[in-house]
Amino acid sequence: MSAIHLDTWRDLPVAQQPAWPDRGELARVVDELKGLPPLVFAGECDQLKQSLAAVARGEAFVLQGGDCAETFAGATAENVRNKLKTLLQMAIVLTYAGRVPVVKIGRVAGQFAKPRSKDTEIRDGVELPAYRGDMVNGFDFTPEARRPDPGRLLRAYHSSAVTLNLARAFTKGGYADLRQVHAWNQDFVAESPAGRRYEKLAREIDQALAFMRACGAEPEEFHTVEFYSSHEALILDYDRALTRIDSRTGLPYDVSAHMVWIGERTRQLNGAHVEFFSKIRNPIGVKLGPTTTPEEAIALIEKLNPDNEPGRLTFISRMGANRVRDALPTLVDKVRASGATVAWICDPMHGNTFEAPSGHKTRRVDDVLDEVAGFFEVHHALGTHPGGVHIEFTGDDVTECVGGGHEIAEEDLALRYETACDPRLNRGQSLDLAFRVAELYRS
Ligand code: PEP
Ligand code: MN
């Protein structure tokens, strides 16, 4: 496939791109990006595709999550470790209590760009460009910070490399060994109900492991985990610059992440994002909101997965707790009737955002849990497979979503509200969600 073929998206309307003030600087940055090494290998993307094919067949479950928006400042060992620790704990809960293999995908190492509903933000009568993620501009509300800077695409690449290096070291270098199930929880047990519940499960796992070792079983899978990276491929100049032809197959892969997805605001059938995604061979996702028609979903399948390759396409529904039970069934049913193979996963975050009286963007944990429950009800009723969850969470004890086991009230939001974009579940809330999902999975 020629490189020119990968640029057909340039002739189409492209939503949500920054107004770069200096196109010459952008071109120089893109050239530099094109010469940099891949962050992931095509073979790893294919492996993930195989795992997602198992999800589509009903044999595995996806846990995909991380920050709404990563920041350059957040690429620290402690921050990445805390996120991974929480993700590993959630995955253990799902594997052990839900009895299902879990495909672990981080919203990490590249989740630096945000679509915005408005191009500008007004504060105290001052209007500046909206924050579009660290890949584009700065969070501070000053003209200098908010000016889109192409140099940030390079920083996004390097920050992704650092994060992915840490993630690979943590997951392959002993930290993810099942004998560490207690260690991941150590700083968390005493003070939280979710931590105590987890500790009980970890003790059971210890006993099972001791039994297996006594039997002489010590499989490789107990010592490391497969962990994959993903982000919304929003800024097409960046993802295009990191698209390479795989020497094994001669096919193009976006080597900035294992999986990339198209957001709710950029999934126009005749738009640039769908066109670009149709050319790369990674496993891909598309967010589907409550206004999606079955015809749109099927047209997306025809464009993005015409050969019906298993594991290639994942639909990430984000309907809202109050819509999921009426908006999702027809979509799932019509897609199934079309004969297409897709994995269905549930993003219970983005349909449930509201503004608290304090002005903080927040979500109710109860709504999040209710959307997940609705997602399972819909799939159980249709006999299709509820294939996973996609969440925004952090390993820290932030106060961004209200409710949950350690009841956070709307008045508490200001205590530790640190997100650069949407509100994330904190560690306890994430573990509670995992226990709930495990119950739903087994029921
Ligand atoms: C997101 O995942 O942060 C996001 C913007 O989601 P959506 O495209 O579903 O609105
Ligand atoms: Mn978000």
Distance between the termini: 47 Å
Shape: globular
**Strand content range:** 5-15%
Low-confidence stretches: none
Largest sheet data:
8 strands, parallel
**Ligands present:** phosphoenolpyruvate, manganese (II) ion
The side-by-side strand order for the widest beta sheet comes to: 11-10-9-8-5-2-1-14
Cα radius of gyration in angstroms? 21 Å
> Element order, helices and strands?
HHEHEEEHHHEHEEEHEHEHEEEHEH
**How many strand segments?**
14
Q: Mean pLDDT, as a whole number? A: 96
Helix amount, in percent? 25-40%
What is the number of helices? 12
Structural class: alpha/beta
Keywords: Amino-acid biosynthesis, Aromatic amino acid biosynthesis, Cadmium, Cobalt, Manganese, Transferase
Protein name: Phospho-2-dehydro-3-deoxyheptonate aldolase
Organism: Planotetraspora mira
Family: Belongs to the class-II DAHP synthase family.
Folded structure, characterized:
Helix 3 packs parallel to helix 12. The chain is built from 12 helices and 14 strands. It has 443 residues and is α/β, with parallel strands linked by helices. The strands form 4 sheets. The chain has an 8-stranded parallel β-sheet, sandwiched between helices. The protein has helices spanning 23-34, 42-56, 77-98, 143-146, 151-172, 193-214, 236-241, 272-279, 294-304, 324-337, 365-382, 427-442, and strands at 61-66, 102-106, 120-123, 126-129, 227-232, 243-245, 252-254, 259-262, 284-288, 313-317, 343-346, 353-355, 361-363, 388-392. Strand 10, helix 10 and strand 11 (343-346) form a beta-alpha-beta unit. The longest helix is centred in the N-terminal third of the chain and has 22 residues, at 77-98. It is 38% helix and 14% strand. It is globular, with a radius of gyration of 21 Å. Bound molecules: phosphoenolpyruvate and manganese (II) ion. Residues 68, 350, 392, 421-422 line the site of manganese (II) ion. Its EC number is 2.5.1.54. It catalyses: D-erythrose 4-phosphate + phosphoenolpyruvate + H2O = 7-phospho-2-dehydro-3-deoxy-D-arabino-heptonate + phosphate. It comes from Planotetraspora mira. This is Phospho-2-dehydro-3-deoxyheptonate aldolase. Its cofactor is Mn(2+); Co(2+); Cd(2+).
